[in-house]
Amino acid sequence: MSHHSYIKVKKEGSVAKLYLNRPQQLNALHRAMVEEIVTALEHLDGDEEVRVIILLGKGKTFAAGADIDEMMEADPIQLEQLNQFAVWDRIRLIKKPLLAAVHGVALGGGFELALHCDLIFAAADARFGFPEVKLGVMPGAGGTQYLTKAVGKHRALQWLWSGEMLEATLLWQAGLIVRLFPEQELEQEVTIYAQRLASQAPLALRLIKEAVNKAQDLPLVEGMAWERKNFYLLFASQDQKEGMRAFKAKRSPRFTGR
Ligand code: CAA
Fold this sequence. Notes:
Layout: E1 7-12, E2 15-20, H1 31-45, E3 52-57, H2 68-71, H3 76-82, H4 86-89, E4 98-102, E5 105-107, H5 109-115, E6 119-123, E7 127-129, H6 143-151, H7 153-162, E8 166-167, H8 168-173, E9 177-181, H9 183-198, H10 202-217, H11 220-234, H12 238-248
Parallel strand pairs: 2-3, 3-4, 4-6, 5-7, 6-9
Antiparallel strand pairs: 1-2, 7-8
This protein binds acetoacetyl-coenzyme A.
């Protein structure tokens, strides 16, 4: 596996773990780090051995946001020319299930990174927030969009306007976090979840993900068309034959992702 400066990648069978690894700065996400994360995600997405990807933070925390040092003296023309948030859009193109396991804090860009994942798991005492408003700015890597789609306008506005830290339980109640675990069990529990997910038919997982994402973006009739096409497409797979034959033979299916 190639050398990384700000992340660490570990493959455990069909589950890949991508650790944010800049712990001295609480995994503050500077541009080079985000590029490294996204490039590694794309690499794992194309790796036949990998079926599910987990994003985690090394050290005390998941990620304390975009790197404030790097942004302090930014000017708008420079930001426009850098087009620095475009790299985030590539996360949307990842086809495999992408899980976030958040401990410590996920603030600003760190929260946005978690929101780019398909499911968020968290330590029971983790805290989330969008402190940008306190820095005189606002989220720029999808915070206003992803959060609103996830929890609706009114909660999103309250949280984005306040800039306060939010307890993981509050986000769990809002349906944003799927499960909470004690911090010392978080990685293990999310790994177990990921392994279970990895035993499902990979093509079905990815086409379900695609259809659900379409549901968030498209009018119903167009979303229905995506669902139908994806459903039909799965009948070209060996795994459809295997899944249905295994059911009839009363045995467990063995899915190959083909
Ligand atoms: N950028 C750069 N450096 C950061 C950072 C950030 N977002 N967050 C933490 N650090 C650095 C600190 O400066 C500190 O460095 P030094 O040791 O050199 O002083 C080190 O990480 C440890 O941090 P603290 O000493 O502050 O740790 P703490 O435990 O006392 O506090 C914290 C933790 C509450 C998370 C606090 O670090 C904090 O508030 N961080 C900033 C959070 C923030 O505002 N994030 C939003 C950034 S803007 C954004 O993300 C825009 C976007 O949408 C893309």
